[in-house]
């Protein structure tokens, strides 16, 4: 194990929801962090990073980089011992499978120029690369739950292209590792929740953001999915970097269950008794059900996750404190509040039909 404290590291796409949490965690460990942004002057995206620069004097460097250009990452990764490629920016105007593949290739081409310095690349992929959330989709090998051997084969450029882009980006990473022989670990998180650092949601954060906001404002929610706390996800990334024996691995980072709206909202009502919450759909109380295998996360990385209840409480409280949601006081009529919020839901492993939302 090689301690990352005080090292120089790179984090790509620094303005996104998870990258911001990872940067904060690395700075707290004394690391010098270089992160890429598309426009340093876009304060709506970068203000929280600028505040971190002030808080951690001299530790955080913001570099403008356009990932679709060859050599865009050369100066970013130079002198870095670890590279965290946190996500393909899904809100990019040229968002496409080809661009996702090209951006990933350019990163590894830059890392290859500094192979003597870079010890490992950590990729933030997505559980969407494992499961495409398609109707009737089931785990491979006759298994009851999904694991790292599964690949999303149901998403295409025409059907849930947002998920397909993620699959293309991860496959490009594995191809680049084969070409350049660079140590890599791929982490596949599920739906990310935690107190948000950025002021507005980016692509990967839009659905959980809508989910929490709708529930706090009395909306009806029919989305159920597995959850990972971004703070735990940041720890998993650092562990993946530090553990020298963990290389060329694909690891799901998530709680093992999917959480139905009735369970989530019952917990929220206990935590916030003065708020009038909406009704879950279906209204009957349901317990969380096993959905995925997270044993590699626990066995290889030694990561133990905080309780989902803690994640929900902290996330909701942050939304309230920052004015990102306007809760309805207990006893108030909800008839004028947001209607059904629906979205891509994990397959039930029993063949139920689900509606989708275009993000």
UniProtKB/TrEMBL annotation:
- List, alphabetically, the Pfam families matched: Epimerase (PF01370)
Q: What keywords tag this UniProt record?
A: Oxidoreductase
Record domain NAD-dependent epimerase/dehydratase: where? 9-219
Concerning InterPro entries, the annotation shows:
Epimerase_deHydtase, NAD(P)-bd_dom_sf, NAD(P)_dehydrat-like
Q: Which SUPFAM superfamilies match?
A: NAD(P)-binding Rossmann-fold domains
Look up keyword Acetylation and say if it applies.
no
User: Does the entry feature the keyword Transmembrane helix, yes or no?
Assistant: no
MF GO annotations: oxidoreductase activity, acting on the CH-OH group of donors, NAD or NADP as acceptor
Give the residue ranges for region: Disordered.
324-348
UniProt family annotation: Belongs to the NAD(P)-dependent epimerase/dehydratase family. Dihydroflavonol-4-reductase subfamily.
Can you name this protein? NAD-dependent epimerase/dehydratase domain-containing protein
Q: Which organism is it from?
A: Vitrella brassicaformis
């Amino acid at each position: 194990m090689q301690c990352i404290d005080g090292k120089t590291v790179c984090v790509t796409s620094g303005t996104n929801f998870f990258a911001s949490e990872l940067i904060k965690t690395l700075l707290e460990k004394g690391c010098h962090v270089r992160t890429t942004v598309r426009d340093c002057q876009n304060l709506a995206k970068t203000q929280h990073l600028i505040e971190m620069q002030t808080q951690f004097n001299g530790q955080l460097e913001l570099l403008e980089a356009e990932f679709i250009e060859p050599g865009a990452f050369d100066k970013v990764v130079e002198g870095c011992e670890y590279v965290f490629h946190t996500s393909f920016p899904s809100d990019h105007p040229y968002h496409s499978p080809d661009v996702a593949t090209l951006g990933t290739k350019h990163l590894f081409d830059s890392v290859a120029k500094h192979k003597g310095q870079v010890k490992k690349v950590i990729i933030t992929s997505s559980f969407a690369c494992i499961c495409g959330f398609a109707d009737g989709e089931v785990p491979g090998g006759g298994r009851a739950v999904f694991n790292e051997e599964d690949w999303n084969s149901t998403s295409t450029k025409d059907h849930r292209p947002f998920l397909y882009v993620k699959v293309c980006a991860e496959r490009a990473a594995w191809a680049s590792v084969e070409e350049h022989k660079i140590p890599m670990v791929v982490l596949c998180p599920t739906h990310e929740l935690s107190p948000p650092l950025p002021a507005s949601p980016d692509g990967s954060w839009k659905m959980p953001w809508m989910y929490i906001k709708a529930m706090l404002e009395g909306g009806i929610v029919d989305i159920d999915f597995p959850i990972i706390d971004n703070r735990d996800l940041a720890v998993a990334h650092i562990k993946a970097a530090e553990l020298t024996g963990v290389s060329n691995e694909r690891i799901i980072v998530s709680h093992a269950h999917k959480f139905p709206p009735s369970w989530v909202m019952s917990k929220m009502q206990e935590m916030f008794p003065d708020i009038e919450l909406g009704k879950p759909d279906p209204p009957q109380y349901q317990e969380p059900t096993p959905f995925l295998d997270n044993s590699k996360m626990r066995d290889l990385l030694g990561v133990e996750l905080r309780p989902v209840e803690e994640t929900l409480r902290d996330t909701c409280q942050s939304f309230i404190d920052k004015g990102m949601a306007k809760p309805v006081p207990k006893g108030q009529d909800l008839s004028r509040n947001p209607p059904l919020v629906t979205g891509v839901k994990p397959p039930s492993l029993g063949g139920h039909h689900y509606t989708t939302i275009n993000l």
